[in-house]
Amino acid sequence: MPCKDKVCPQGFRCAAIPHQGVLFVCGGVASDVDCPLNLVLKYEVCKNRWTVMSKMITARSFFASGIIDGLVYVAGGNSTDMFELNSSEVLDPNKGTWRSVANMGTNMALYDAAVLNGKLLVTEGWFWPFYVVPRGQVYDPITDNWENMATGLREGWTGSSVVIYGHLFVVTEHERTKLKVYDSETDSWSTVEGPPLPEQICKPFCVDCWDNNIYVVGRHLHLAVGHISSLCSQGSSRKRCRFSVQWQVVDAPENLFDLTPSSAQVLFA
């Protein structure tokens, strides 16, 4: 990447448009001075080329990001003085310009984020010793408005998320690494049928998805591919479907043994 600074890999955020083979890398933090960046880079698979894009309005690290209708949204994170931000902004990749959008209802750094039903969901997640209930915010780009996340959604969001079949799935980090799925009608989570994440996939791991497959990249860059099946009975509500998962492991080459993932993104070449 054309980045002058030595960066902390976990500090930046990635957002991808898979079928266009385009990856955006935003923000981050300079590892030697703990200084957040407003850097924005674009990678195109078909050209195998990086392009430096217009910088974000606000330098930020450990923030939320997501793509809605081809636009790249970022929110929250840590500022230059290492305080949490409440500001949000959006990039139009075609115009190459950023503009501010409504501020979140609270200052918050990222634990995880997802785009579900055209809205950006942001959670700060649970932290040891689990005394403080996590906060969560939901952004609607149509109304340019943030609202508080439903209680069950934010309290049960205990891992890295993907959206498949229009449902939010989470690879849990605090339980026995089972996959679980959120039910918006009951504001509750249920365990997905099938085996837990294979033992070869060790923390820290990153996740992404495409179609009905979830991809989990773990330490040493071993990959687990989970095929999600819908177990909806005929005539049942799509929102109340049950799901199952079957895992397949793809071992990484030995020369990648010392690596750990900071992001996982599916791109089409």
Can you summarize this structure?
By secondary structure, the chain is mainly beta.
Q: Could you characterize the architecture of this molecule?
A:
The chain has 269 residues and is an all-beta fold. It has one helix at residues 151-156, and strands at 12-17, 22-27, 29-30, 35-36, 40-44, 49-52, 64-68, 71-75, 88-92, 97-101, 112-116, 119-123, 136-140, 145-148, 159-164, 167-172, 179-183, 188-191, 206-210, 213-217, 223-230, 243-250. Strands 1-2-5-6 form a four-stranded antiparallel beta sheet, with no helix packed on it. Strands 7-8-9-10 form a four-stranded antiparallel beta sheet, with no helix packed on it. Strands 11-12-13-14 form a four-stranded antiparallel beta sheet, with no helix packed on it. A hairpin with a 4-residue loop joins strand 3 (29-30) and strand 4 (35-36). The protein starts with 11 loop residues before the first strand and ends in a 19-residue tail after the last strand. The model has no long low-confidence stretch (mean pLDDT 91).
